[in-house]
Inverse folding.
């Protein structure tokens, strides 16, 4: 699944094959509407932005 979703880690020894820190917001039809993938520069998402985006998608915007 990590390969299918494009979040497989192969950049650090010992983490090969593990998933990158990732957030997917999926709508009611099962479509990925928003994605955040962690990086060295931004290891944590803006959680308020994630919640706002989820609310926007849930409202059908």
């Amino acid at each position: 699944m990590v390969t299918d979703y494009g979040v497989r880690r192969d950049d650090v020894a010992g983490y090969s094959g593990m998933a990158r820190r990732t957030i997917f917001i999926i709508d009611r039809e099962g479509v990925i509407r928003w994605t955040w993938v962690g990086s060295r520069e931004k290891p944590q998402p803006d959680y308020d932005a994630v919640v706002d985006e989820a609310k926007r998608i849930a409202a059908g915007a």
Observations:
- The two ends are 28 Å apart (CA to CA).
- Helices lie at 47-58.
